[in-house]
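Instructor's aside before we start: the two examples that follow are unrelated to each other. I chose them only because their records fit on one page, so don't look for a connection. First example below.
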Amino acid sequence: MSVFGSPELQGYLNRRMRQTRDPYVPYELQSYHRFHRAINEFTWLLKAFYAPVEELKARRFRLDELFQRYIIANQISTEALSADLVTERPLAKAWQRGCAQALQKIWYNELAFHTPSLVDPFTLDSRGVSINVSASQLRLAFPSWRIVNAYYVVYHSYRALCEVLGAPYRPVEHESPLRAFKATKLALSIDVLFCFPFDLRYRNDLPRSQRLRSLLKQKPYLNYRYADHPRPPHYPFCSVLRRVVADFRGRWQRWSIGKQKQPYMIADLLHDFRNWVNYVDIDNVVALKGEGYRGFLDLDLSTIVYFHAGMTELAALAALGPEWLVEVANSFHERFVLKEASLMRSSVPRPLDSRMEIYAHLGRLGDIVWRPAPAPGLVRTSLLPNLPSTRAKMT
């Protein structure tokens, strides 16, 4: 049987693929476009899967709301994380100090990625590209550094997860944290914390045959045209998923035999992107001038960065508790953010601030108060209605 379902479904997908052609890509951007396409299609899977049907039909997506729906839909509760992720801890003081330092590295690099800030960091659809067009042009005047910033947020997220969950790794070896995450019991967090599409990974011995069927059973409307990718040639959701996995497979196959013992994940794609933009290419980067390319890349990277930082904070909440996390976050805010005038002048919520609002709204912080005042601008974190049935599932 096909990896992606029945022969009938496979035939339908093949027909749709033959009826479509990828849009024209200038020669000078073809190497870059391979990364751009894979990242954009990955974030489309996230948006299409978690957005309500009406918002999906209207192509209206908000980052803060997607993050809340991700937590709610996957029932990511502190209790579940504590039971499934938290193992034996090292010595308490040294462990807590290492966790605090690791989390602050995420927040530091995330602020670097978001400075200067977008006009509206939450609107992820074409409206967001239009609203942020001038800001994205400025932020990606030197695209390589924004890509590197994004990668290091994700890198430090895995490093912090190793610290929080007690997985040994070599701090002086760059690839060690992600390898430790993949190779130890932390991989169980794939099923608890890293849910679709962040659980997508490729290794030739990983089971995949029932994956698409399971997703479509949960949300059959993903078969409809309004779940197709919004940009030409409008690949259906199933085809987008197949293309992302195929991209992971192709990159995994270029690894050495020894490295192929590990699966390929979205973090590996960002690592490859960072290496390519830093050490391999210059022509594509210099040619990257289009507002659409820059705008969508900016929003797609922002989405991946926001979610990775958030998933690590959720693990820290489970392992160390809300009082500890808020104390560390407040300390970082007072020692760094308050003393940087450019950060304090920002008119939009800082990423950590918006996620703390979300955790408080979803009951993750208990009675603990997140002290920093909201940004002075009109853009605010959108908090979903806190339905009793939703709260019951989460607690």
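Example two begins here.
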Amino acid sequence: MSQLHVKADNGERLTLKRSFPNDLIGTVQKTFKTLSLIVKPLAIDLQLAYQMSDAGYLVPEPIPKFPKWHIRQTQNPADVSIKTRYVHKPEIKLVPVLTPDRLHQWLQQAMTQEPPNSSYKIAISTMSAFYTRVRLYSFTEATRYVDLLDGKREVRLRISKESEGMWIYSSTENQLLYSPIFFEFGSYDGWLWLKIFITWGGLWTNPGLTEHDMLRKALQELVEGGWIPDNIPACFELI
């Protein structure tokens, strides 16, 4: 088989939540490591806000001096195009590869901002990994492309063969597509939320496919690590 045939569809939005951890940066880093079974970010947009020290709620004011940050990796295929989604220029950092350790260092730098007084502490408002690369398992050595049916058009996407397996990169030039999987952290209603968006549903929501099994494994590990399922399709059968 020279290519896989998949369909872009409405997919699924998976949501989990947890109370705010004492080690917020460490928790985010660990979550990235867990999700790396299936998806790795190429770039991250970060919006910071202040949180009341004695509660889990964000406040609209005051605003941190540097509220918006962006980090992206530079070692990508030549046809991969990445940019920040913020209109107003954020603090930008470029790294060769966006690893969990580099993420940890970057978050520490971004969140080392003195609050106006002891009533506040810095917190993540939103943190989006919209540009990603996604691991493919259902392939043979001859597989070179994914043929994606997106509405009435068919798009051919090249599979990148790397030392750790087969990957599809999002955001290739001249292809207006969502990443097959992307995710976002957010602080709402006193909880830390994790939303995982699947836009090529068939590969990851059909039991029996390795992609589905690896996503289920990652979700189960997140639950065992303290995340609470809020909206998880029954096909993942979490314990």
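The chain has four helices and 16 strands.
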